[in-house]
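Hello,

Our lab assistant flagged a job as stuck in the queue for most of the afternoon. It eventually completed. Since we weren't sure the result was trustworthy after the delay, we are filing this so someone can double-check. Below is the sequence as submitted and the structure that was eventually returned. Let us know if re-running is recommended.
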Amino acid sequence: MKILYAAIDQTVPGTKGGSVHVAAVAEGLAALGHDVMALVTPGSGTPAASRVSWVPMRPPLGSTHLRLARSRAVARAAAAFRPDAIIERYHNFGGEAIRLASRLHAVAVLEVNAPVIDYAGSSKALLDRALLVQPMRRWREHLCRLADVIVTPDAAILPRGVPRERIQRAEWGADTSAFVPGRSASAPFRRPAAETVAIFAGAFRPWHGAIHLVEAIRTLRGRGRSDIGAVFVGDGPELPRVRAAAEGLDHIVIAGALPHASMPAALAAADVGVAPFDLAAHAPLALGFYWSPLKIFEYMASGLPVIAPAAGRIPSLVADGREGILYSPAAGRDGHAAPLADALVRLGDPSVRRALGAMARERAEREYSWTAHCRTLEAAITRALGKRAR
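-- returned structure --
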């Protein structure tokens, strides 16, 4: 089938999770034999050669809030392509592609990665109520009504009243052919001289909790344990704080941002993957842990046991004692440090790491590959096409 994928607020090629996601879904659908046209903000360099038709189309002034101003350009591209399905990456100020679906007799798919509903205390909700008719709420609910299929990791972030049969729950994934255990490529950093090396990879935002891994290492040093080190890969607003907290601690490497193509080798150089999410540090997470975290799936695909808090949906993604170790944060500012340190000690045993890492890899191949995600998406679109034909 012909699939138009509108994600003009995402940069491809790119290193952020959204960029990786869009590239993987477009490539995955093309690999299943579909004719895919993807509208994206062009990144530096060019996407790898593939059957995807990458069309550069950035939002005006680079602002996601101005996506609708590209409606005419999207309409021209869609009219020339004549897709069987249109996938739009949801944004409160979007709608530039999904509104075309009925006119072109295409299946409308809304890809929802962030809450459509407001969390308690949301400034956006306060502004909406001040405008009396709540235009933002009405608009995003309108976008959901337009969709034949809504693909999301968590239906709890959708408005009430969305028909259950239109919701396709699906986790995001990892490239299980690139992220493999024991990858032999040279690491893009110097591995710390520690027996066990934990890695944090991702955006350095407060709720990603990178600072908690530093605090756990400091806790271990206070216990006289110098055999566990850590590597930090990525960039973001919390990176200066992490650097400052790590000063004076041995066996810590801060590698900075790396191209996504370097990540398989980076993870292969570590022993444990750490995802110390801090739900209390991000107000929208009061709705629940709605993420489908790429870092966890890439850790697992690489054969790394995962350490993460037992919060929200995380226990459904990583089974404690099977694919990793889940810990319960204590109350207070440093509540992650001690239980995270304890989890690192438990995974200091190489035999335990190997056993849990093997189970993590097996589950990643079965449930968290991009191929599995795209097959689920393909099946949902096919069902919607069949329903429309009937």
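-- support follow-up --
The delay was a queue issue, not a problem with the job. The result is valid. DSSP finds twelve helices and 13 strands in the chain. The chain has two domains: 2-173+369-389, 196-367.
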